[in-house]
Design a protein that fits this description.
about 290 residues, alpha+beta, 6-stranded mixed beta sheet, 11 strands, about 20% strand
Length: about 290
């Protein structure tokens, strides 16, 4: 079994790194010889979360959903990190989901619901990224973003807030396309401690999970509720993405986890994440 690459960050590469403000993790922008411009996020010593971004990226590749690339990294002083190469195309500018929502509805004049997000994508005539291996039923950015939500359910990504999706705009032609899915750091029960992973059944975990979306009367929408609304809004596209996930063999997922280098994930979190993915896959089967 070939372990995942760990990119080595030399003192020279880190010397001119630009620190990025905001967010809980310490982040930098720097240039690497083989990857170009990357965002480097230092691993939290108490939680060790780099594996979440790496594994969720690899899971996205299994179902051919457009996703930002993530690689393990280690600094010259031994600190661990995750690096993600720039996903913007040349001569393109990024706009967040929040910017689109504020422009269309007016700042603060909307609830952050699944329907609101899908409507905003539709009315802004966002296009799908080029060179994607999408299901035949997926022809619009709305249907692709539905895939992001189905993927979120599978990996238990509770963090699809309005800054965690967006578009890129061609500064020359004005063409707008949906960005790949990115920032899945709160997925797979990441916030659980090792002892909780041993005691908590995936079914009980999922039952108590809230998504980033609002439901009726402004209440938080559960992850199960998000799944139902995504299917209700775009049934054909949703089921096409569900089919890609449900066709995966559990052994394929286990192989990914076995490629994580030693020390990057605890045995407890690895077992819980694998069981959680399979539990959610079985739930998706029942919705197919």
């Amino acid at each position: 079994m070939i372990e995942f690459l760990v990119v080595k960050i030399s003192p020279a590469a880190f010397e001119n790194a630009e620190e990025i403000e905001g967010g809980a993790a310490e982040k930098y922008r720097l240039n690497l010889p083989d990857l170009g411009t990357v965002i480097l996020k230092l691993d939290d010593e108490s939680l060790n979360g780099a594996w979440v971004e790496k594994i969720t990226y690899e899971l996205a590749k299994l179902i051919d959903i457009p996703a930002a690339t993530y690689e393990f990294a280690e600094l010259f002083d031994g600190r661990r990190a995750i690096v993600s190469p720039n996903y913007l195309l040349p001569n393109h500018d990024e706009r967040s989901g929040k910017s689109l929502l504020d422009t269309y509805f007016g700042q603060g004049n909307y609830s952050y619901t699944v329907d609101t997000v899908l409507t905003t994508i539709d009315v802004n005539q966002i296009e799908i990224p080029s060179n994607c291996n999408l299901p035949p039923q997926v022809k619009t950015a709305t249907e692709l973003l539905t895939g992001y939500l189905i993927f979120d359910y599978w990996i238990d990504n509770i963090d699809r807030h309005y800054e965690n999706w967006g578009i890129q705009i061609d500064s020359i032609t004005g063409r707008r396309e949906l960005l790949p899915t990115y920032d899945h750091g709160l997925s797979l029960g990441f916030l659980l401690f090792d002892e909780e992973c041993l005691d908590l059944a995936p079914a009980n975990h999922v039952q108590n999970q809230s998504s980033a979306f609002s439901g009726n009367k402004g209440r938080s929408l559960s992850m199960n509720g998000m799944l139902v609304e995504a299917i209700s809004n775009q049934p054909d596209a949703a089921r096409a993405w569900i089919e890609r996930i449900t066709q995966l063999e559990p052994a394929t997922v286990i192989e990914l986890f076995n490629r994580i280098p030693a020390g990057w994930i605890s045995d407890e979190k690895q077992l819980f994440a694998i069981n959680l993915l399979e539990f959610n896959r079985q739930t998706l089967i029942r919705h197919s």
